């Protein structure tokens, strides 16, 4: 056998290459089984970027289903709570151009939290069933209240309330949440090729 | 002579310290009203423990610490609590926070004070507790609760205690004058701190070379102790914690860590004084030394000011000329912030009130484009690249900002000071830091929301499955019932089977029959008694009735006897 191979170089090359092919093929096959990824990693990454309000404004029942849908090729601009920054982040992840927010699904608004006017609440539990993150506390015929820290501001509880006692209140900034803002007095002292210059010229 | 290390960067702004050092520490009349914000420190706000209308004594606790990192607030003078409500406070935002207002009765009645001159008999924990209870926080500017700092130092071995007396910021002389006049008390305070820290191997006092009188006073006070007074070259910002540690020891505090992580604790000299007052004299932190300076003030000097004193009250006593003043700054010209009103109260962290004239600190010139001169990079004491950070701050590129170590910026303002284009660089960094922290928080809350959403989904699925199982079981049962009801024989069979199953064992049956025989005999006896009574006094009808019941009872006894005999056989 060895003699045959040493004498016939073409056969030797053939045998060794086929052997290598089989070996690496087997190795790759084993690795594919061993290190199998259960779910699509891109879905997880997309889900990380979405704001997790679970509001359904995108038309999907939660952020994860929308992430799945984006992975399957859906548009990335259907998330109003995330706004432009989320669109930009997703665009960066998927390496596509960032479109502006699809107004059909809503406009980007300031963050709010639900507030139940407690003396008007009749204890019907409908809002509790509607809340996607279990942020409403209460029981049948007992007053309900919102756990403010857990509320994502999705406003899914407002619609089912039969006595309209739920308000969406904007989150008020207090002294702990206050942050410095970017300086405003940026005078443009040097002539640049900005559009305003062109406008004045034409 | 101890070896010193030189920090990178740094600037030499005009010191302007002489004017406020001409006079010693002054005292002001007690203001009519004192406003005490409940958050004057890093951490959680204190909780009020008095009500409106309460009469409080000087030094009485009016708000207690709440949470892990907090400090209580004490009444700076005796008087009546007139309000507990949101008031504008000295904060760069100009926003309001919960404050307690005291109307002074100008009697200055103290609570009973319990000093511990023998603090060495107490355990370090007990002493640290005394410091916490006195509401002592860092007086250098950041306001970190001192007891928490010392406790944190105690969890790790501390070999070096550094007392920060550098006071590198221009205009401020509060520490300088305090050391000149009360060096002995500061040394006593250092003794207390080293007791809490379980006697660190070396104690260094870092002081800048521009305070010769204070250096002499410290050397004199330290004569018989192991404390070493180290004079460091005057350069801004050598008083930064990380900078001072490096200058004195040559060791760098790693990014994101504390001095205690490398076995050091750094305490301001004013804080050491406050700790002495708290432990040895038993006095809570109700006043501090503060510089009032600037050309718009007729008198430039240091005062011992009660915490909560409105700035306007201090300025009034200081021949302040409003029209000369360009703006009011709390803190120094490098790191301080402008006040929106002069009615704001002094807090524990207020080192200085600066009222400069228009020529002294003119209005900021308009910002011009960055020319990439690199002066800021040369000035940065943290060896960062301010011009790069500025670029990324403008484009809000959080990843790059963090890669360029934005969070190592100590916001000293040296870069803005040297910038030829007047770019307020520090404000860009502060804003970016805020945005990054906000987005981190948003991520955390999003993760929480996701977890709650997924848990709810799992719960709903489980409930749905459980319902499905029940429904299926019911369906199977009704179907079975339908099919089996067709033949009557089956039903009879089933009934017979049930009856058989119900039949008990012979022993039990025997016992049961014996019991019923006994009962029947008793009933027979009772019936016979009643018959005898009826025979004696009853009517004929009654007699007949009783007779019948006796007969019935007798029959029952006979029947039971027969069944028992059958069973035995």
Features:
heterodimer; A: 202 residues; mainly alpha; 3-methyladenine DNA Glycosylase II, Chain A, domain 3; Alpha-Beta Plaits; two-stranded antiparallel ribbon; elongated; disordered C terminus; B: 569 residues; alpha/beta; Rossmann fold; Fumarate Reductase Iron-sulfur Protein, Chain B, domain 2; 6-stranded mixed sheet; 4-stranded antiparallel sheet; 17 strands; 42% helix; 14% strand
Given helix and strand content, the structural type of chain B is alpha/beta
Multimerization status: heterodimer
Trace the largest sheet of chain A across and list its strands.
1-4
Give me the CATH fold name of one domain in chain B: Rossmann fold
Average pLDDT metric of chain A = 84
Calculate Rg of chain B over CA atoms.
43 Å
Supply the CATH superfamily name of one domain in chain A: Electron transport complex subunit B, putative Fe-S cluster
Q: Average pLDDT across residues of chain B?
A: 90
Distance between the termini of chain B: 121 Å
Query: Could you give the order of the helices and strands of chain A?
Result: HHHHHEHEEEH
EC number (chain A): 7.-.-.-
Function (chain A): Part of a membrane-bound complex that couples electron transfer with translocation of ions across the membrane.
Subcellular location (chain A): Cell inner membrane
GO cellular component, one term (chain A): plasma membrane
């Amino acid at each position: 056998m060895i003699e045959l191979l040493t004498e016939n170089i073409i056969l030797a090359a053939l045998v060794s290459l086929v052997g290598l092919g089989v070996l690496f093929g087997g190795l790759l096959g084993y690795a594919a089984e061993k290190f199998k990824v259960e779910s699509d990693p891109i879905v997880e990454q997309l889900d990380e970027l979405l704001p997790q309000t679970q509001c359904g404004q995108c038309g999907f029942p939660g952020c994860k289903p929308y992430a799945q849908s984006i992975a399957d090729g859906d548009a990335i601009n259907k998330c109003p709570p995330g706004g432009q920054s989320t669109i930009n982040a997703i665009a960066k992840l998927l390496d596509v151009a960032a479109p502006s927010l699809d107004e059909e699904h809503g406009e980007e608004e300031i963050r709010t939290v639900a507030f139940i006017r407690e003396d008007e609440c009749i204890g019907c539990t409908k809002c509790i069933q509607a809340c996607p993150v279990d942020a409403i506390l209460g029981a049948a015929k007992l007053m309900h209240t919102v756990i403010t820290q857990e509320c994502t501001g999705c406003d899914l509880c407002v619609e089912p309330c039969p006595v309209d006692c739920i308000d969406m209140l904007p989150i008020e900034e207090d002294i702990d949440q206050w942050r410095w803002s970017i300086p405003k007095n940026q005078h443009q002292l040097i002539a640049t090729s900005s559009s305003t210059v062109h406008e004045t010229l034409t | 002579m101890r070896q010193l290390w030189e920090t990178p960067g740094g600037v030499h702004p005009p010191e302007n310290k002489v004017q406020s050092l001409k006079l010693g520490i002054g005292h002001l009349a007690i203001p009519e009203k004192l406003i005490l914000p409940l958050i004057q420190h890093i951490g959680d706000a204190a909780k009020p423990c008095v009500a409106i209308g309460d009469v409080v004594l000087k030094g009485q606790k009016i708000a207690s610490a709440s949470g892990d990192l907090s400090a209580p607030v004490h009444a700076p003078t005796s008087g009546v609590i007139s309000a507990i409500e949101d008031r504008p406070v000295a904060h760069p935002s100009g926003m309001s926070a919960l404050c307690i207002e005291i109307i002074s009765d100008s009697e200055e009645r103290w609570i009973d004070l319990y000093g511990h001159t023998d603090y060495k008999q107490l355990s370090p924990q007990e002493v640290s507790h005394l410091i916490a209870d006195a509401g002592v926080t860092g007086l250098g500017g950041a306001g970190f609760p001192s007891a928490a700092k010392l406790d944190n130092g105690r969890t790790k071995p501390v070999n070096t205690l550094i007392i920060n007396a550098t006071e590198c910021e221009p205009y401020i002389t509060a520490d300088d004058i305090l050391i000149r006049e009360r060096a002995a008390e500061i040394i006593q305070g250092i003794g207390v701190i080293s007791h809490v820290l379980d006697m660190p191997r070396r104690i260094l006092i870092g002081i800048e070379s521009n305070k010769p009188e204070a250096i002499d006073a410290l050397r004199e006070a330290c004569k018989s102790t192991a404390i070493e007074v180290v004079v460091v070259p005057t350069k801004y910002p050598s008083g930064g914690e990380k900078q001072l540690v490096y200058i004195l020891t040559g060791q760098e505090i790693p990014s994101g860590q504390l001095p205690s992580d490398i076995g050091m604790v750094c305490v301001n000299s004013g804080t050491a004084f406050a700790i002495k007052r708290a432990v040895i004299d038993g006095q809570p932190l109700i006043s501090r030394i503060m510089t009032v300076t600037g050309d718009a003030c007729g008198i430039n000097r240091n005062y011992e000011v009660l915490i909560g004193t409105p700035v306007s009250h201090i300025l009034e006593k200081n021949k302040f000329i409003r029209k000369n003043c360009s703006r009011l700054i709390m803190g120094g010209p490098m790191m301080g912030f402008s006040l929106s009103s002069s009615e704001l109260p002094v807090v524990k962290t207020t080192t200085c009130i600066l009222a400069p004239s228009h020529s002294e600190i003119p209005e900021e010139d308009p910002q011009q484009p960055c020319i990439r001169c690199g002066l800021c990079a040369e000035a940065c004491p943290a060896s960062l690249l301010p011009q790069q950070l500025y670029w990324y701050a403008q484009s809000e590129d959080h990843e790059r900002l963090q890669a360029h170590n934005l969070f190592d910026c100590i916001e000293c303002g040296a870069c803005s000071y040297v910038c030829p284009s007047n770019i307020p660089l520090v404000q860009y960094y502060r804003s970016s830091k805020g945005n990054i922290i906000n987005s981190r928080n948003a991520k955390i809350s999003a993760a929480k929301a996701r977890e709650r959403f997924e848990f709810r989904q799992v719960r709903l699925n489980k409930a749905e499955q459980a319902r499905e199982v029940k429904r299926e079981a019911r369906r199977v049962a009704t179907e079975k019932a339908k099919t089996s009801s067709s033949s009557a024989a089956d039903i009879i069979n089933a009934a017979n089977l049930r009856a058989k199953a119900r039949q008990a064992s012979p022993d039990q049956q025997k016992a049961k029959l014996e019991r019923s025989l006994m009962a029947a005999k008793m009933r027979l006896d009772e019936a016979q008694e009643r018959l005898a009574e009826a025979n004696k006094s009853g009517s004929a009808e009654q007699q007949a009735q009783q007779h019948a019941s006796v007969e019935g009872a007798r029959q029952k006894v006979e029947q039971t006897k027969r069944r028992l005999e059958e069973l035995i056989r």
